[in-house]
Amino acid sequence: MGRTFAFEPGAWLRDTRTLPLALRGFWIDLLCVMHEGSPRGTLTHPTGAHMTIEDVARAVGVEPAMVTELVAELLRRGVAAKGEGGALLASRRMARDKRVGPRSRPQASESVTRVAQALAEAIAFNFPKLTPKPERWVGDIEKLLRLDHVPEVDALAIVAWLRDGTDRDAEFWRGNILSGKKLRVQFGTLMVRFTASARSRGPGRRQAPSAPADFKGGKVDL
What is the pLDDT of residues 91-121, one digit of tens each? Predict the structure, then answer.
């Protein structure tokens, strides 16, 4: 079995918010146990044999009577499902992740795609010999927008400045921001320099870049 499984903190907090603390602790322990099951996501041993109440009690360190009570509560609340073939419990999410496969990637949101493609367009515009690959930046740009709480309009304004700005800061930074990761890491500094540049130019309106071109793979991997 794999050593890790997908865990989304936001989804966990959202899905388990109404559960009592003891039930939440029991469920996360069961998820770790089920990750080693066969099939994965069910309360089974790695050999495929079904785990009994006593087996689960030993695995999580509580009394069998408490396991019986907590298992019934997970089923009642719809947190877990009955396992196929008689397994005590199964995790629907873990089973779904197994079907999707470890190499699959979630679809990027439209906002993430627009920022990634706009950055790729800006890089290709200023450095024609480079071949950006925006699909590789989805994770970093998604974190920039969702975790760092950067509005899409601000990200696009910075990218437009990197592409078309004529001031010294724009000329310096466009040669350093050649990936989504660099955009995220340097975004705070970029915003400060962009704001200073805008003030020096006087009142004006931010403009987002034009529709991005369709980039294909090439020798340079960004």
Answer: 888 777 655 444 444 456 889 999 999 999 9
